[in-house]
Queue: 2 jobs
Job 1
Amino acid sequence: MAEASTVRDVTMKQRERVREAGAAIEDGPERARWVVGLSLVLDDEPLIALDRATGHGFRLTMSGVGDNYQLQTLLADRLIGEGLVAGQAPLDQWVAAATDASPRLPMTNPVYQRLRLSDGHGGYVYPEGRPWDIPLLDGVRVIVLDPPRGAYGWSAGRVFTQMLPALTVDGTMSPDEAAHWMSRIAPAREE
C-alpha cells in the first residue's frame, strides 16, 4: 500500500510541475494554453455525488473529464440514465459526443443540462469550469445534485477530442453514510 501512495505522490508532483509550466505560458499562443487544460485533467479521482432531493449518495471515480459540461453529461448518464436519480436522461448522441463519437453537436440538437451542480461548500459548479476547480470537502470533491433551472444547452460534447473519459459509479452509500455527507454540505448559494 505504501508503494501505491509513493507512486501517487510522485505522479502528483510531476503533474504540479506541468501545471506550473503551463501557467507560465497560459498567456502565450492559443495552442500553448491547452497545456494548462490538459495538466488539470484528473485521473482516478474520487467523487461523491449527493442527491439533495432524496438524500442519496454515490461514490464515483472519474478520469479524463476535460470540463464540467462533459462532467454534467456523464453524471446525468450514469445517475439518471441508470435510474439512481430522478430526472430526464441525456440522449444517447449527447453521451456519445461526451465519450467517443464526434464531440460536436449541431446547434439544432445541443446537449441540455439535466442536473444543476453545486459543490459541497454551496458554490455553483460552472459548466465552463473543470472538475479540477471543484473544491475539496474533507479531502474529496463533492457534487450536490439539484434539478436544472430552465433549458441551458451547449454544442460541444468534450474539449479534448482524443481523450476518452471514464466516470464509474463505484457504489451507492448506505443511508447513514449519505446522511453524514449531507450534514457536511452547505446550502446552495444563488448564483
Job 2
Amino acid sequence: MKYNLIAAIALLLVLEGMLPFLAPNLWRKWVMAMAKYSDRALRITGLVLMLLGVGILFIMHTYL
C-alpha cells in the first residue's frame, strides 16, 4: 500500500513537471490566467478534478 501511494505521488510529480519543462511560456500564461480566477472557481475546479480522479480509480478497480 505504501509503495503504491509513493509511486502515485511520484507519477503526479512527473506529470506536473512536464508542461513547465516542455513549454514554460505556455505554463506561465496558464498559471497567470488561473491567478485571475476567484477562489470559488478554483475550488470548484479542484473538486471536479478530484471527483474525476476518484471516478477513474473506481472504474479501474471495478472493471480492470
